[in-house]
Fold this sequence. Notes:
7-stranded mixed β-sheet
Amino acid sequence: QVQLVESGGGLVQAGGSLRLSCAASGRTLSTYYMGWFRQAPGKEREFVAGMRWSGGTTSYSDFVKGRFTISRDNAKNTVSLQMNSLKPEDTAIYYCAARGVLNTRYNWWGQGTQVTVSS
């Protein structure tokens, strides 16, 4: 079992920045792949960024490349999403999720944190 708790959401003006954090606990996290997803009102949940907890290649959706950065802090057991140059279309609930590195389905999800970008 993996427990995930997001924090750091809020209201920001377009062009501003926010940093989301995901505190993870439970099983040995080094064998997991961590992802950030988001869901805007009336839209399906979509993948934003991901990385293996043990490090290595990161992955981003095209709509955030060059603006968002995913990272992890082993000492604090957190995965973060630094979001710069925010746009109103980035407004959504952001979720942290985890899956086994050999799995395709994310089994554990946080409760989500609201990000609102005003124009």
